């Protein structure tokens, strides 16, 4: 069965995610702000949940229609083929948000959508009451400029939850954003990657799993795995496929440093949990002493960015230091994400390329030095 699917992602990573989806076999892939839409079957749905590195979740799109009144909202939802995915015992809670629309009260929209879903399913299943004791089928809606989109979430906990980062330090970068930066930095199975501000180790762990072809969701479960509507063998087959794609013979290696010994230990623990510790060497170290051990490599990092004035000045000193130790033209490429507007001036060189990315609500730039 072919379905319409949508994956939300970080603003700025749409093209990276659409590339991932196309390589996976997604059809009719289109990009909108913060999302990628595509078509595929149950196999692709399972593969996308397990294998996409930059998607926040995988949603099935059930309906899209204009609504400026509660009646239009009710009728639009009631016309959606909910019974194709929601069984008579399943739970179907509703959540969502509205922006720049006539229908702006989220709790009201939530209860109208629930009523419409109940009405539709009552007619299909000939029952008058739903106990909702079965697996959760989370209905999710967005209303943007009076256009309602209705989705079913197949992922459950967000896909950035890979299972290896139970603990984190103060300012960890989200796994999905880190994976997007790694894609833009062209990390390959034969690369050497450095992160001199490794924190909880995210860039290095994500780089290693990518280089070795380890699917990010291999060790976790997804909401739709409990659904009766998707045959269990689909998930088993896609797990087997993901295992076959692992390249244990890749030459990849990585090095992580942090001034804080606790961060170094945390990175080690996380890398161990992710099963990639043998590929990464961690050590305590100050950026002033950064010295790559190989001739070629890729440096990827998000250096500290202070919120208070004193911290900002300290961060600025670090950016100057980075400009000194990140020597150009030495076979090393540098990818640095920072929200600091003056980064290039402090670092001392204009980036060869820049890209606007959002780290949550914070507008950042990825500064790329590769010439
Ligand atoms: C924003 S965090 C990096 C987060 C990391 N990317 C992660 O995913 O967890 C910045 C890190 O830089 C480290 N740091 C601060 N000053 C440093 C210095 N002079 N040399 C090396 N590391 C430093 C901090 O201990 C902190 O872990």
From TrEMBL:
Sequence ranges assigned to domain THUMP in this UniProt record? 44-154
Q: Name one GO molecular function term.
A: RNA binding
Pfam families per UniProt: RlmL_1st, THUMP, UPF0020
Q: Which UniProt keywords apply?
A: Methyltransferase, RNA-binding, Transferase
RNA-binding among the record's keywords? yes
Give the InterPro entries listed for this entry.
Answer: DNA_methylase_N6_adenine_CS (IPR002052), RlmKL-like_Mtase (IPR000241), RlmKL-like_Mtase_CS (IPR053943), RlmL_1st (IPR054170), SAM-dependent_MTases_sf (IPR029063), THUMP_dom (IPR004114)
* Record SUPFAM superfamilies: S-adenosyl-L-methionine-dependent methyltransferases
PANTHER family linked: RIBOSOMAL RNA LARGE SUBUNIT METHYLTRANSFERASE K/L (PTHR47313), RIBOSOMAL RNA LARGE SUBUNIT METHYLTRANSFERASE K_L (PTHR47313:SF1)
Please give the name of this protein: THUMP domain-containing protein
